[in-house]
Prior knowledge:
37% of the residues lie in helices and 31% in strands. The protein is an alpha+beta fold. A five-stranded mixed beta sheet has the order 4-3-2-5-9, with helices on both faces. The protein has a five-stranded mixed beta sheet with strand order 12-11-10-15-16. It has a four-stranded antiparallel beta sheet with strand order 1-7-8-6. It has eleven helices and 20 strands. The chain has helices at 60-73, 103-117, 148-160, 225-238, 241-246, 256-272, 295-305, 321-326, 331-386, 395-404, 435-447; strands spanning 3-6, 18-25, 28-37, 40-50, 80-85, 91-97, 125-134, 138-147, 164-170, 183-190, 193-200, 203-211, 214-215, 222-223, 247-254, 276-277, 413-421, 425-432, 452-462, 465-473. The protein folds into two domains: 3-317, Nucleotidyltransferase, domain 5; 395-473, General secretion pathway protein M, EpsM (Gyrase A, domain 2).
Amino acid sequence: MNxxxxxxAGRKHQKHASIxxxxxxxxxxxxxxxxxxxxxCETGVMLRQTxxxxxxxxxxxxxxxxxxxxxxxxxxxxxKCVVSLPLSWVYVIYQDIPEALTESDVDxxxxxxxxxxxxxxxxxxxxxSIHFEAAAAGRRxxxxxxxxxxxxxxxxxxxxxxxHVAGMALGVAALSGGEEDVFSVSFFAHQDxxxxxxxxxxxxxxxxxxxxxxxxxxxxxxxxxxMIIREMRITLGRLPEDIRAGMKSYRILGEASLxxxxxxELVPLLSRMGLEFEDxxxxxxxxxxxxxxxxxxxxxxxxxxxxRPNHFEFLPPAAGRLEKLMGRISSRRLFWQAAAGAALxxxxxxxxxxxxxxxxxxxxxxxxxxxxxRRVSALQEKIRKYRPWHDDVIRSxxxxxxxxxxxxxxxxxxxxxxxxxxxxxxxxxGEAKSEKAWLAMLAKLRExxxxxxxxxxxxxxxxxxxQFTISFSI
Length: 474
């Protein structure tokens, strides 16, 4: 059974009369308005608009005002929304769960693995995970992490656009489908590449991205089908036997122009792998997807519309009215709080009185020594003025030497850029051939006592290498 194990567990799921699905992909905003009609769903306004600023590095207030204007011009009045996160923001790991663990211990075990295996500090990421039974491999968990800075940026933008965020989900995971006994594969084609999700009965078993699968440099988009098939064979080799054996069909969703190109290139190759193309025109509740540029946005919003939880949820729940009220109405608690406040105020008055006496004493001493201090300060100013402009320590080279000690000698990790800011902080970007080498280098940097406040800004897999960006103080 597929069980949702969310960091923000306990969220109540309720149905809505209408909802707005929002996604930010390729520098553009996609929005779709959904209305619930009993157990069916109807679409309202659908739009896709290029934004003037990047969603992560732009000004949240300006972006919020721009989004508000786009929605108002399109006639969208819905305030509740579900934000669909792109798979490129997400770091995914897979973990086997020992059979000896009881159900109550599984959550603690997964939390421990999250701390050990994610190359981020726990406070720098928002984590959501699911676990399921695989007959060939036992219980397994899929763990997804998003930088908390990304989540906070989106919250600020949505607040500035006067939208109430009802959910923040991994959109491609909402495309998982298939019958209860058959695994299906859903591909989502977009301008940055292709995403894949393997599911059964609406449950997610595997997700991954194929960055660089689409090239837009030529007049017509070019699809690297051979790379996708090669990576798929590697992926299938790592899956449990029962999942591989249960995979029978697949579907391709996304922008209509890209879908046609992907179908032309991939269908013959996937047929040789024993997968049958499923030309499914509808999502759940009968929504047509042929003209829909972002079906994963619609699927994630539809789950929230009907009160169904999304597989990966990254938005913390807000405290309800009842919880806020219960925190205020305890008379005994209010009495002890008032007594403690009065005692604290009296203590503060005494402390400030004693401090005033001590300060007056030191001010009198300072007045006595002030002339001597001024003479010494004048001498120090002359020393600094006529001192040579250089010294015998080259700090920038010393910093680079300390960084170099953490890198392996065989050349499995290399640096593309190093930026030293004000001789106090440093940002470094590079690439690694393997995750093992990258984690070893990161551990050595953490052990170096001359390096502090080490943070991983970005880790991304692509083109056979691990791309990273880290920052720290020196």
